[in-house]
Structures are given as C-alpha cells and as structure tokens.
Amino acid sequence: MTIRIALPLLAMIALSACNRPVPPAPDTPPEPQATELRDAIQAPIDRAKAVSDTLQQSADARAAEADRASGDTPPPSP
C-alpha cells in the first residue's frame, strides 16, 4: 500500500518541478529574427521598383518631348 501512495506522490513532486517559461514583458517588442534573410529578399524588389520608377519617368519625358516637337498638346490630366 505504501507504493500506491508513494508512487503518485513522487510523480506529483516531479511534475510540480516542471514550470512554464516566463513570457516576455508585453511592453518590450519581440526581437526581429530573420532580418538578414528578409533584407536579402527585399533588396531585389526595391531595386526593381526603383528601375520601374526611372523607366516611367523616362517614358514620360520622351512623350513630353515628342509632344513639344510635334506641336501637339497632351490631353488634360483628370
């Protein structure tokens, strides 16, 4: 009968030693974790956007130059 009492009591003591980890304080933001990977992925996207903007500006400048050269006035922008 002592084993019937001792074994569950020993199991309860062993399990009570297992505690949950303390969660981080809510006022501190979590530390970023894959910043290098995120930057490596984002860099080509940013370059492509910059190239797209440059190409659009170049196309607008060419269209404006062509309009000035032909004497046509572009339609008003909405």
Features:
rod-shaped; 0% strand; 2 helices; 78 residues; mainly alpha
What does this protein look like?
This protein is mainly alpha-helical and 78 residues long. It has two helices and no strands. It is rod-shaped and about 110 Å long.
Secondary-structure blueprint:
Elements: H1 2-16, H2 35-70
- Judged by helices, strands and strand pairing, the structural class is mainly alpha
Please tell me what the overall shape is: rod-shaped
Largest pleated sheet: none
Residues in β-strands, percent: under 5%
- Cα-atom radius of gyration: 34 Å
Arithmetic mean pLDDT:
83
Q: What's the helix-strand series?
A: HH
Distance between the termini: 92 Å
Give helix % range: 55-70%
Question: Helix count?
Answer: 2
Low-confidence stretches: none
Query: Using DSSP, what is the number of strands?
Result: 0
Quick summary:
By secondary structure, the protein is mostly helical. It has helices at about 1-15, 35-70.
